[in-house]
Write a structure and sequence with these properties.
Elements lengths: L32 E6 L4 E7 L13 H9 L2 E2 L2 E2 H11 L2 E6 L4 E7 L5 H13 L5 H20 L1 H13 L13 H4 L4 H11 L5 E7 L1 H11 L29 E5 L4 E9 L8 H13 L4 H7 L7 E7 L4 E10 L3 H18 L2 H17 L5 H15 L5 H9 L3 H11 L6 E6 L1 H13 L5
Parallel strand pairs: 1-7, 8-12
Antiparallel strand pairs: 2-6, 2-7, 3-4, 5-6, 9-11, 9-12, 10-11
């Protein structure tokens, strides 16, 4: 799963902000939380469950991803065909996605009359998966094909490699999709056990986009309470905890791959969803590599060194990371590595007011322009925001946070987070490109 920049997708509806009161003493006994975003033009239900790969039992990496697939094989009174028939008839979007800390289930309805069926289907997927052993045994092969296909996407391969450098001893460093070796050992019992442990109502947030009547239906179907609280469970006991990624044993990893290009994934320790520095970091991301006028875009894409170049920010409940993805011709891979290292090291000093304002204007324009274009993606972001922080954001609220960032704020955050001595690199490609990458990274002070 590629890192997702949710602030790039939004939409204009009358959004009611719900402030959620945290009460840790009740966690584990609470019913699901419910948030309502008022809309007369779009209807959807999104459910966040604290069941991502970070919370898997030790030795069962991939069970969360397999559970996500298992739900669509049979849930409630529906078998596989009935589920697929319902999805086709709804004509909207009913699906799920596994991340490091959540499984996200969602469904959208094209017509108001379809919302009850959409809600019932999503609720069954979350609350009543069947886990038929024979069906699940066949699905394991499908999941292995999926992650093997992802392995052919060398960008995903190097992203997972960079994460394993940042978190070499914890579950955040493991692939979200799992590995074929482990998946072949998992079955209905493992999925059922993980579902029972992870799909506790206290770890659920249900977001309804639609009318008050639709929100009432969801509240009844899930037995949810409108009085909400952040729903993030603690990391597993076997994980070494801290404010950020662990000090890596090595900061460079090479993955030999055939082809005429190298794919590079750089990573830096980042920050959590709740860190007040996040708006400033989001603007710095625009200056570094997200925008088409960014430093990396102009020096790499603009000079014809790579077609794909981007930077991103990925947040978790108590940590996060800053990433750079780029490709490079085999004979110039070392040059691209040097450029990225140089830009990360120099941005805190080279940042100018003009380029910060340009990044701010670009990001706000993107939010405003996308208001009508991607309502489901923005609703997913709202659900995640509510799950991790206990409040559902408005478009105007996000814009106000970006507008409050000063130049001094951005310079300070850049100095705190863009520390080249903490940079890691996973490179994939032909061996001669990998040698050039390692040499260039070493020259920049990166190989530990």
């Amino acid at each position: 799963m590629r890192p997702f920049d949710p602030l790039c997708t939004t939409y204009s509806h009358n959004i009611r902000v719900l402030r959620l009161a945290r009460n840790p003493g009740r966690l584990g006994t609470m019913p699901p939380a419910l948030a309502h975003v008022s809309s007369r033009d779009f209807s959807a239900v999104i459910v966040c469950v604290g069941a991502g790969s970070r919370h898997e039992p030790r030795g069962q990496n991939g069970v969360a991803h397999l559970l996500e697939h298992a739900a669509f094989l049979g849930a409630g009174q529906r078998d596989y065909r009935a589920i697929r028939t319902a999805i086709d008839e709804l004509g909207g979007d009913v699906s799920a996605e596994t991340g490091e800390e959540v499984i996200l289930y969602w469904g959208s309805a094209n017509e108001p009359r379809d919302f009850p069926e959409c809600l019932d289907l999503v609720a069954d997927l979350v609350l009543a998966p069947v886990f038929d052993p024979d069906s699940l045994r066949r699905e394991v092969g499908t999941v292995i094909q999926e992650i093997s296909g992802a392995g052919d996407d060398v960008f995903q391969t190097v992203v997972e490699g960079a994460k394993s450098l940042l978190w070499p001893e914890g579950p955040l460093g493991l692939p979200v999709g799992g590995s074929p070796r482990v998946l072949r050992r998992l079955g209905a019992d493992a999925c059922r056990g993980y579902w029972r442990a992870s799909h506790d109502p206290s770890r659920m947030l249900v977001l309804v986009v639609g009318t008050a009547a639709e929100s009432k239906q969801a509240r009844k179907r899930f037995g949810a309470e409108v009085l909400e609280a952040p729903r993030v469970p603690l990391p597993p006991q076997w994980e070494r905890r801290g404010e950020g990624p662990y000090p890596p044993r090595s900061r460079f990893a090479a993955k030999p791959l055939a082809g005429n290009f190298a794919r590079l994934a750089f990573g830096l320790p980042g920050i959590s969803w709740s860190d007040p520095r996040l708006p400033a970091l989001d603007l710095l991301n625009g200056v570094l590599g997200r925008d088409e006028t960014s430093h990396l875009w102009e020096r790499i894409r603009g000079e014809g060194l790579a077609y794909n170049t981007e930077s991103y920010v990925d947040c978790f409940s108590d940590t996060g990371w800053i990433g750079v993805l780029t490709d490079a011709p085999v004979d110039r891979a070392g040059e691209v590595v040097g450029i990225v290292c140089e830009e990360v090291a120099s941005l805190p000093e080279r940042l100018t007011i003009d380029e910060l304002e340009r990044a701010r204007a670009s990001h706000i324009a993107r939010i405003r322009n996308d208001e009508l274009a991607a309502p489901l993606e923005w609703a997913k972001y709202q659900a995640l925001h509510g799950y991790f922080l206990g409040r559902v954001p408005t478009v105007d609220g996000v814009v106000r946070e970006l507008e409050r960032v000063t130049f001094e704020d951005a310079r300070q955050v850049a100095a705190e987070l863009l520390q080249p001595e903490r940079l890691v690199l996973c490179a994939g490609g032909p061996r001669r490109a990998l040698r050039a990458c390692e040499t260039a990274f070493d020259k920049a002070g990166g190989v530990g």
